[in-house]
Amino acid sequence: MNQSMIKPKRLPPGGTIGIVAPAGKVDINHLHRGVADLEQMGFKVILGQHLEKSHRYFAGTDSNRANDFLAMMQNKEVDAVFCARGGSGSARILSYIEGQSIPPKILVGCSDITTLLLYLHKQYNLVTFHGPMVATPSWVVPFAPSYLFKVLSGEPIQMHTSEVTALKPGIADGILTGGCLTLICTTIGTPYEIDTEGSILFIEDTGEAPYRVDRMLYYLKTLNKLKNIRGLVIGQMPDCEKEFLPEIITELLADLDIPVLFNFPSGHGDAIYTLPIGIPVRMDTQSTSLTMLSPAVS
Question: What predicted TM-score, i.e. pTM, was given to this entire model?
Fold first, then answer.
């Protein structure tokens, strides 16, 4: 894995945040609540031109969503770009983005936004941020915004909660990558296929039956995407019958000598922590922690 990633500039106090919806259509009430929170924190907020549009289950047409995304990323007055929500549709805008100038800038999102995070990480060598989205319930999870802004201000943090458990013991350092498991699998065979070599891999998802989680992990294993990772961090996996998952995961990884953490709060579920993709981290199963080894911004 390439370790010389390009870090975006840190988010200054009172900076400007652009909000876009690259995927699913947005709940306007949730959006306005999130915007009000940001403004109360002292930030200036700019909304994407097509943010409140609807086209089938998308937030506007593919070109609408792509134009909003590019406009915010290219706007020199915007310090960071936050995604409103996930859903579906991020992959559909990539053909509009390909070959466009995208300067290093904070991009935050999760769920379906995993596609964009990994695309910019792979194609543009950028550090991106798997974190809470402003028009979703995860935005009001206790501490989620505070940890987000700590990371975006340049603070390396140790991430730990008592609910995290160790499935396999150990300590490991590596470059953090990953996101929503379903979306990780859809990168395979594309120009932005996830690179897991030497990584601490983070995976999470929601609403997937245990057999589907088993199938996706086995798929990644047969492609050697798990062979050379240094550690695996698994999210809270809500609505996935998670009581069955530790046995499935432990059995599938029995031949790999790597530490494994389970029930980590990021993404779907209690999205407390923001995970910077492309930054060196240390995972420690004794303290059930994940620690950033360098700032994620410059």
Answer: 0.97
